[in-house]
Amino acid sequence: MTKRRFKEYELETGCGVEACLEVVGGKWKGLILHHLMQHGTLRFNQLQKLKPNLSPRILTAQLRELERDEVIVREVYPVVPPKVEYSLSPAGESLRELIQAMQKWGDRFLVRVNAPVRKTSAK
């Protein structure tokens, strides 16, 4: 588990922004949240198929951090083989507008800086 960056935070001084970035920041957390918002409840392998270049070890670590921060819920079913599903918690749902705003801002940024982008294939 990762440690918090600060020992204590001050409200209304920008520390809330830092705390939010600790929760949704990181290379893959925003993308994981985006997929859970878009697809609903997903199993580990489904998440991995959505981003194949994400290693299982890193995906596990990111999911554990999101669960620790109570942004996602991990539900384990007592069956063989094991079945584990991930979904948004109420706190995770409350991030929906933020993640959508980040998506819009990021899309505009990529166009503005003329980044190499490809269109998603229609399924």
UniProtKB/TrEMBL annotation:
Coiled coil spans: none
Keyword terms: DNA-binding, Transcription, Transcription regulation
Keyword Manganese: no
HTH hxlR-type domain mapped to chain residues: 15-114
A Gene Ontology molecular function term of the record: DNA binding
InterPro entries, alphabetized: HTH_HxlR, WH-like_DNA-bd_sf, WH_DNA-bd_sf
PANTHER family: TRANSCRIPTIONAL REGULATOR, TRANSCRIPTIONAL REGULATOR, MARR FAMILY
Name of this protein: DNA-binding HxlR family transcriptional regulator
Organism annotation: Tunturiibacter lichenicola
Organism taxonomic ancestry: Bacteria, Pseudomonadati, Acidobacteriota, Terriglobia, Terriglobales
